[in-house]
């Protein structure tokens, strides 16, 4: 399906919590649009967008999959994102390149913790969003309750544009409230909802007479396209009910992809995969300009040029050469060797900001049998870390250990499966341990005069101050360039984040401000790398004087349990150092929301499921790092020599730098 030049385009991400029916919806969209001739299914492992073996086996999406089709003369690029919280990094990368989104809610489960988290990210980025309430034919489907929940937890500006017909198994579809003959009460509700939010429409409404529906619909279209209001539609994806209406709503309410094909190139690589014969596949969203086969493109992030060998559209397992990629479109570009996720192509001007959702909270050691070559295992995991930079695969040479960072246990199962199916390697993983962080306990100074053994000369004084939670590292220099040359200042600035990778307890130090308040070099004795050696010693000297406080990851949790189990759950939460809101009774179930340290609750979902005999749900997402109570201790073995042992450290670094 080669698209015509200049065709209108929309780039849509499909988002949902686990089991809301996201991949099934995508599959039916592709079928209804004529893109595929036969329906695949998640349960039988034939869904087109689930192309990985593990996705077919588990019935979950792990990768964000791209598909393209045309509907009513508009070219649609559709990205089906994973719903499981362990694959949040995939969701995050897709969010960045979408112009609009469909959020799927289940008519039975309603708004889940993850729906809320994705919603917040969509709002932060201002992405226009449609809501599709799926599974309307299920026992317990309650569209009224889901709407009330969505308006409470997501936004008061969610506006249903359909009226469901029939309930649960009797559900037959939904009527369009803009069509003649629509339910009068529901239409009045729709018009009142719009009038309440706009003075001009309110006057029109109050003046009586029959409303010109085209004017009212146009108003909602404009509000939806600018991300101010959120139309809601209903359906049953598994039966194909409401899918054509969902497609129509996408065309009606979503803005078109902008961008000027004549401008200089501005694009971003949001995903990397590998093709056995063609090598690295860079998924590129282009905001401005045009890239053609055999063009030379500037990789702005790495400051290198690369030649494009081919541009393809990829669907499931199929690819098709399209020859060119235009502003507003998404395609796979081959030939960009060494390209990384997040790299900017051309110029950065037209690229939107990103929303950070995924934070790996667990670190795991990887083990393998003597029959496998170390280099092969390390190489394979480093290749996978290219595709998901948050894995952060680290080989500790001295200890001969390989460590990775993960979001959760399902991600480990998937990694296990990918290592075997793609590389023929069998690995196992140690017990996951929690990633702690450190922050300065108070303000103070660190000082280093690195003047021995000659030739060397680097003097640095840092002011280190605690910063607000979530602020990361803020660095500045107050030193004049006459005292410390700009090249030495730059070297110091570059080495500060490295020096903070391991604090007093071996964890990354965060939420602090580091200010260089004094610095000197020597005209003859200073060697260019002296400041690379001195910076970690100055920083560690400061941390050692002021002390650091341990921070631990905290989860926001929502637990739904039968009423008779709620007492035990609240007791468990107290035992795990958790805090919670007063529980809410909904039918015969209790909803308990609160915050829990990850360290105390790693195995809790399994425990909960076993004593409620599977009649409970536990959803969580990362809420931030908080100070540990004084009785909690956690140390990590330091890699390399500690800069506090200055003599030993200087020798080891000098040797490494020369080597």
Mean pLDDT, to the nearest integer, reads 82
Strand residue content:
25-35%
Gyration radius over CA: 28 Å
Low-confidence stretches: 42-64
Strands, total number: 34
What oligomeric assembly is this protein in? single chain
The main sheet orders its strands as 2-3-1-4-5-9-6
| Major sheet summary line | 7 strands, mixed
Q: Terminal Cα separation, in Å?
A: 54 Å
Helix coverage percent of residues?
25-40%
Number of helices: 17
Estimated structural class: alpha+beta
What is the overall shape?
Answer: globular
Describe this entry's structure for a reader.
It comes from Paenibacillus borealis. By secondary structure, this protein is α+β, with helices and mostly antiparallel strands. The chain contains 17 helices and 34 strands. It is globular, with a radius of gyration of 28 Å. Mean pLDDT is 82; it is low at 42-64.
Quick summary of this structure?
The protein is an alpha+beta fold.
Descriptors:
659 residues; seven-stranded mixed β-sheet; six-stranded antiparallel β-sheet; protein biosynthesis; antibiotic resistance; Transl_B-barrel_sf; GTP-binding protein
Any chance you could write out the topology, listing elements then pairs?
Elements: E1 8-16, H1 22-32, H2 53-58, E2 65-71, E3 74-80, H3 88-97, E4 100-106, H4 113-124, E5 129-134, H5 143-153, E6 158-160, E7 162-165, E8 173-176, H6 184-196, H7 199-206, H8 213-225, E9 230-234, H9 243-253, E10 266-275, E11 279-288, E12 290-292, E13 296-299, E14 304-307, E15 310-315, E16 318-321, E17 324-326, E18 330-334, E19 344-346, E20 362-368, H10 374-387, E21 394-396, E22 401-406, H11 409-423, E23 427-429, E24 433-434, E25 437-440, E26 444-450, E27 458-466, E28 473-477, H12 486-499, E29 512-520, H13 530-546, E30 548-562, H14 566-575, E31 579-580, E32 584-586, E33 589-597, H15 598-601, H16 604-611, E34 617-627, H17 646-658
């Amino acid at each position: 399906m080669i698209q015509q030049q200049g065709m209108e385009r929309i780039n849509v991400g499909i988002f949902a919590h686990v089991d809301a029916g996201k991949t099934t919806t995508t599959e039916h969209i592709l079928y209804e649009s004529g893109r595929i001739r036969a329906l695949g299914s998640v349960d039988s492992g034939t869904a087109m967008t689930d192309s990985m073996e593990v996705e077919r086996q588990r019935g979950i999406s792990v990768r964000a999959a791209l598909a393209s089709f045309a509907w009513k003369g508009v070219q649609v690029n559709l990205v089906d994102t994973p719903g499981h919280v362990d694959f949040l990094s995939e969701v995050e990368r897709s969010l960045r390149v979408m112009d609009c989104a469909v959020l799927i809610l289940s008519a039975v489960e309603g708004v889940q913790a993850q729906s809320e988290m994705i919603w917040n990210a969509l709002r932060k980025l201002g992405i226009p969003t449609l809501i599709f309430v799926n599974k309307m034919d299920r026992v317990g489907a309650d569209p009224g309750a889901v709407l009330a929940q969505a308006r409470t937890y997501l936004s008061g500006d969610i506006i249903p544009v359909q009226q469901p017909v029939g309930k649960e198994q009797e559900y037959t579809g939904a009527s369009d409230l803009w069509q003649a003959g629509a339910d009068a009460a529901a239409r009045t509700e729709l018009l009142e909802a719009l009038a309440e939010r706009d003075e001009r429409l309110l006057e029109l409404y109050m003046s009586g007479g029959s409303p010109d529906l085209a004017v009212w619909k146009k108003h909602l279209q404009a509000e939806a396209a600018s991300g101010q209001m959120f139309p809601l539609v209903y359906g049953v994806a598994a039966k194909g009910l409401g899918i054509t209406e969902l497609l129509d709503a996408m065309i009606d309410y979503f803005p078109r992809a902008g961008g000027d094909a004549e401008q200089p190139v501005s694009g971003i690589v949001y995903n990397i995969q590998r093709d056995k014969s063609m090598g690295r596949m860079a998924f590129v969203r282009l905001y401005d300009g045009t890239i053609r086969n055999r063009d030379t493109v500037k990789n702005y992030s790495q400051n290198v040029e690369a030649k494009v060998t081919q541009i393809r559209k990829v669907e499931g397992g199929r690819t098709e050469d399209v020859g060119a990629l235009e502003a507003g479109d998404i395609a796979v570009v081959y030939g960009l060797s060494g390209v990384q996720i997040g790299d900017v192509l051309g110029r950065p001007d037209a690229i939107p900001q990103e929303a950070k959702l995924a934070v790996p909270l667990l670190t795991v050691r990887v083990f393998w049998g003597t029959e496998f070559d170390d280099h092969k295992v390390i190489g394979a995991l480093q290749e996978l870390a290219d595709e998901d930079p948050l894995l952060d695969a680290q080989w500790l040479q001295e200890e001969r250990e390989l460590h990775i960072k993960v979001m959760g246990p399902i991600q480990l199962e998937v990694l296990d499966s990918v290592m075997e199916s793609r590389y023929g390697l069998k690995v196992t993983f140690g017990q996951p341990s929690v990633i702690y962080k450190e922050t300065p306990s108070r303000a103070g100074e660190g000082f280093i005069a690195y003047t021995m053994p000659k030739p060397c000369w680097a003097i640095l004084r840092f002011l280190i101050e605690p910063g607000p939670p979530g602020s990361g590292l803020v660095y500045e220099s107050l030193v004049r360039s006459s005292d410390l040359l700009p090249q030495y200042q730059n070297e110091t600035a570059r080495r500060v984040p490295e020096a903070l990778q391991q604090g007093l307890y071996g964890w990354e130090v965060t939420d602090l401000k580091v200010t260089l308040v004094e610095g000197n070099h020597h005209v003859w004795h200073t060697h260019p790398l002296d400041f690379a050696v001195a910076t970690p010693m100055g920083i560690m000297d400061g941390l050692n004087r002021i002390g650091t406080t341990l921070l631990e990851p905290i989860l926001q949790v929502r637990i739904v349990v039968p009423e008779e189990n709620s007492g035990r759950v609240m007791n468990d939460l107290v035992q795990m150092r958790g805090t919670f809101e007063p529980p809410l009774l909904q039918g015969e179930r209790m909803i308990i929301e609160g915050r829990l340290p990850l360290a105390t609750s790693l195995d809790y979902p399994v425990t909960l499921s076993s004593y409620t005999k599977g009649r409970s749900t536990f959803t969580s997402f990362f809420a931030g790092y908080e100070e540990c109570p004084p009785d909690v201790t956690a140390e990590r073995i330091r890699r390399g020599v500690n800069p506090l042992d200055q003599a030993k450290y200087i020798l080891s670094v000098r040797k490494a730098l020369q080597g």
